[in-house]
């Protein structure tokens, strides 16, 4: 921040000097403006000052809504920035005929707005995993997400307006798509935050939170996949193969496919939980630790897994949204079919795990 302030001061002084020289030497407004726009040195100084002003505004927004960044947020910012810069460079090669000063300014603004979105997502993740969060932090993050949504809508409206006015393929397609993705991501993050607040007000007893969160992420991936496919087709038909979209399109499709398969697997496991997992008897509750390892609260009733560990039924259902292994011993939770269970009991094997069978089921959020 100190380096940026120093650089901003020197940039401002250099720009003021060049503007003063232009008006003092030309003595009239129009000749001075012509000189500033045609002189290469003055043009570079003005462009540099504009970029510095954007960076300073970004720092002010970050300071107002987020305060000091945590180490994890800085790491996320650095990792995403390098990858995004590379993708932007690929995009510039596609729209090279539209390259101009305004295009460069729009690209810089897009990168800065994307960085704010990464920080907002990381801050929401931090709030969700922190036991006690001050009310001021909630107010700031809600205001921040609303601010980002307004910015996304303004840039999106500007890009769509330019696209409609020109009535032909242009770089406005690129910015329209990018701000559509950012706007949908902001809405998804905000709804996820609303789920967290609702669960917090219910003192952590909202059993359907994990289910609704899963549906939200599934719908978000579907919307993003649809937008990526539409944009890929639009760019391919007008400019050629969009290399910068191939990785994002593949990752979005892969995540969506994984979520679909995991959802089918989850529904299969939880379809008849009362029948698949027996209730723990009072003797079993007394003989074991009555604290549920998932929610860290005492159990008066519990479900018993094949491995013998006990958990709340709603905690177990939420856990199955993320993992299909026991939280305590990491044994597979998936119960066997009736035929396999009977066969296993006849051979004296433990039900649900056949010799040499490896079960690996992961659900990534």
TrEMBL record:
One of its GO terms (molecular function) is zinc ion binding. GO terms for biological process: ERAD pathway; proteasome-mediated ubiquitin-dependent protein catabolic process. It comes from the Eukaryota. Residues 292-330 form the RING-type domain. It is an enzyme of class 2 (transferase). This is RING-type E3 ubiquitin transferase. It is found in: Endoplasmic reticulum membrane. It catalyses: S-ubiquitinyl-[E2 ubiquitin-conjugating enzyme]-L-cysteine + [acceptor protein]-L-lysine = [E2 ubiquitin-conjugating enzyme]-L-cysteine + N(6)-ubiquitinyl-[acceptor protein]-L-lysine. It comes from Aegilops tauschii subsp. strangulata. CDD domains: RING-H2_synoviolin (cd16479). Gene3D superfamilies: Zinc/RING finger domain, C3HC4 (zinc finger). SMART domains: RING (SM00184). SUPFAM superfamilies: RING/U-box. Belongs to the HRD1 family. It is a multi-pass membrane protein. PROSITE patterns: ZF_RING_2 (PS50089). Keywords: Endoplasmic reticulum, Membrane, Metal-binding, Transferase, Transmembrane, Transmembrane helix, Ubl conjugation pathway, Zinc, Zinc-finger. Pfam families: TPR_SYVN1_N (PF25563), zf-RING_2 (PF13639).
């Amino acid at each position: 921040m100190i380096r940026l302030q120093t650089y901003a001061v020197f940039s401002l002084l250099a720009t003021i000097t060049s503007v003063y020289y232009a008006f003092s030497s030309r003595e009239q407004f129009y000749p001075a403006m012509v000189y500033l726009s045609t002189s290469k040195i003055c043009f570079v100084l003005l462009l540099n000052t504009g970029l510095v002003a954007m960076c300073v505004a970004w720092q002010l927004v970050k300071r107002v809504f987020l305060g000091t960044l945590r180490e994890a947020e800085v790491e996320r910012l650095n990792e995403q920035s390098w990858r995004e810069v590379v993708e932007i460079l690929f995009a510039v090669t596609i729209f090279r005929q539209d390259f101009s000063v305004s295009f460069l300014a729009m690209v810089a603004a897009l990168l800065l707005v994307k960085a704010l979105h990464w920080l907002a997502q990381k801050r929401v993740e931090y709030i969700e995993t922190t036991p006690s969060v001050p009310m001021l932090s909630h107010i700031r993050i809600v205001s921040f997400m609303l601010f980002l949504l307004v910015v996304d809508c303004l840039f999106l409206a500007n890009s769509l307006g330019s696209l409609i006015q020109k009535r032909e393929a242009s770089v406005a397609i690129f910015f329209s798509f990018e701000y559509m993705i950012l706007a949908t991501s902001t809405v998804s993050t905000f709804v996820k935050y609303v789920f967290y607040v609702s669960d917090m007000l219910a003192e952590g007893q909202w059993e359907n939170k994990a289910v609704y969160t899963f549906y939200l992420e599934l719908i978000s991936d579907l919307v993003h996949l649809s937008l990526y496919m539409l944009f890929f087709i639009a760019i391919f038909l007008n400019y050629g193969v969009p290399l910068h979209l191939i990785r994002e399109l593949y990752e979005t499709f892969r995540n969506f496919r994984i979520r679909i398969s995991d959802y089918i697997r989850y529904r299969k496991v939880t379809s008849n939980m009362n029948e698949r997992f027996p209730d723990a008897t009072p003797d079993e509750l007394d003989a074991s630790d009555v604290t549920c390892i998932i929610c860290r609260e005492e159990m008066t009733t519990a479900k018993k897994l094949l491995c013998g560990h006990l958990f709340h039924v709603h905690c177990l259902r939420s856990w199955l949204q993320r993992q299909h292994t026991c939280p305590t011993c990491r044994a597979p939770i998936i119960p066997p079919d009736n035929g396999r269970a009977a066969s296993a009991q006849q051979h004296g094997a433990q039900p649900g795990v056949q010799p040499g069978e490896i079960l690996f089921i992961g659900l990534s959020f």
